[in-house]
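Q: My collaborator sent me two sequences in one message, no labels, and asked for predicted structures for both. Can we handle them in order? The first one she listed is below.
A: Yes, handling them in the order given. First sequence, followed by its structure tokens:
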Amino acid sequence: MEKIDRRTTLKLMGMGAALLAAGGRGLAQQAPTADQLVKGKNPKLIVLSQRPIVLETPYDLLASNPEKTPKDLLFIRNNVDLPGYNTVEGASPQGWKVEVGGLVDKPFTFEASELFAMPQTEVIMVLQCSGNGRSLFQPRPSGNPWKRGGVGNVTFRGVRLKDLLAAKGVKLGEKAFFITAHASRQGNAPEFVRSVPIQALEHALLALSMNGEPLPAVHGGPVRLVFPGYFGVNNVKWVQKIEFTEAENTTPEQMPRYRVPAIPNTHLPFLPQEPGKTYPYNFQNSRPNWLVTINSFIFAPLEGQRVQGPYVRVEGVAFNDGIVPIVSVEVSTNGGRTWHQAQLATQGKSFGWVRWQTTLYLRPGEHEVMARAWDATGRSQPLDGNIAWNERGYEYNGVMRVKFTVA
């Protein structure tokens, strides 16, 4: 066999590396973009999963739409992909039937198209995946590696569930402690069921539209059962059955998924779990991801941005479960030793996000700004979000930190 000298070996190795790089680029080009997976979505959305479809909104695009999140930019976290519904266009309500039963005196079935003739209610609300911010936990938990783009601010419009029950003359049983919603199983879709406490009935909405347009099929159209103030997983898309039940359902999406460790009969929001460890979830030692945790985001400046000084405008949004108002947002430029009060754009309770802004005097150079929100119950964000570490990475709400340069 003829020997190959060192120069030839290095040349062959270089050719091999080039071929591998080209092959890698080819594979990357073959991976579908967001608009190829879902018709009408912005191609810049980050594909976290192709099946079920999970798309994250790039943070700069989220921040550039501080009033509401348009349908082409809104994140998607599907647990079920309904065949033929991967589009931002609306789905026909004709023939879409929803059963209502369980602990009610008169079970009934209605067609989604009937709802348009009833009084409509509108709500602006934060829609957020309970895994949003997961990649900020250390070590990184299991699941889709969300950064901060699994959230949006949207306007839903539709018929309140309690108004529908009243119109049908339906009364609930004494032991109707939960609302249990089932998603459609069209096309042999997997079962998806979620239960929320009966208190959620006060604001529960059978949503028919989003941001003034027909509810996008991929976001649950033609009708989605929406619970303002609750994490996105509880807002069941393509709802086809609503039951009033005495207990939570026992499907995997209720147990062990979408839960965090908790101490029974305490007011603690979570049970500290040692990072990297597993937990033996059951209904007694954990709680579901129901109510949205208090949080705040910095929309300007953005990470790594270069801004003109010395007066720098800092702004963003804050939100909670809507039960009580956000009362303040504070910012710090010295690692949390001192805090500066920001100005809130609105006062009072809100299911949507509350805009805030302030102006800081900053010398030229690198800076880090932090933001935290407070609400009327005294709830705020931890300086170290990792204290709430859990193995599935739910409910991250640590103080946000942004590094930028002042020119």
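Q: And the one she listed second?
A: Here it is, processed independently of the first:
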Amino acid sequence: MPILFLGYIAIYIDKLVIGVIAVPLAEQLHLSIDEKSYIFSAFFIGYSIMQIPFGYLNDKLGSKFVLIISLSIITVASIVFGSASTLIALIAARFFAGIGPGYPTSSARTVTDTYPMEKRTWAQSILISTSGIASIVGPLLIPIVIGAFGWRGAVFCIAFLFVLALILVIWKLPNTHKEKKQSNQPKVKPAMPFWKVVTNPVVVLLFIAMCSINIVLYTIANWTPTYLADERGVSLGMISIIVAIAGLGSLLGSFGTAYIVGRFFQHREKRVIFVLALITAGSALLVYQSESIAVLTFWLFLCYMCSVMIFSTMFTLPLKRLHESIVGTATGVVNTGATLGGVFAPMIVAQLVGAFGNYQAVFVAIAVAALVTCLFVVFIPNMKTIQKA
């Protein structure tokens, strides 16, 4: 678990602080809001393309192999991004950085191989809690690094974290796939072929729901710094504090999922998501309406915390409701939906800001996306229904 934990922190710092790094990057290279959206979207396009293949490889070759390949690719891509000076090079580097992270699907496979059913929500939520840690540590440290070494230095520091994670995975992570093959246990046949996995009702509904909740998450994570700088006139130092406080909400949300959902709402996740989606939508609207920065920060904190709880709760559903032989493939499909949310979010922001000239419509879109998430989760079959199928 500690090995996966470090890699997850590196992945999330890379994804979440790009919004902070983009502020000085855009100033130095004179990038428009549309050009910044291309950089953000490129990462998630690459990310989306590789989730299903990585999920399949996890089931066939094991999670350790995929983790090594993933970390190797994103390390090289980060170094290239930190060295780039043109928009095309930046977009290409982020695209290949997106191809790298097979981490979520590989970690889900490792959790399934390592933990019994009743502990999988706890284990997966602990891993996802790294998004909260990254949301606090990253925004607080990255501006300091940028001040000392520039935005390129900040990118190279993140690349160094990937190198450390790669070394630990190679050195310390057990090869559970190899151990299973060498054991005397009978070989488990896949519960269903690939086409049945991608058309499974649970997988399809989670695909759509994860896309919509990630529109919420990545709009908040990547565009809050730009909104605060451009429309509110907030300094980079203050932005880092606001984003870090919102990150605390992400951390509490992840741990809250591990404790509250894992302990009190096993198999009743839909009720939790319904309530959290309503709170997320309401707090998103109040972020923009708040005149005080302190009040804005509170609603941003609440919005981020509840949306992360929704994400964490949904991400555990394939681990608990699908046959373990297809968990890697199914998680890859679901995570493709999640990454498509990261693709659409920058496009939505650029179009809405271009059309209305401010971010009010953006926060309305966040609220709508939260409610769409809730709508599709309602139709996921209950646990008893799935067990009878």
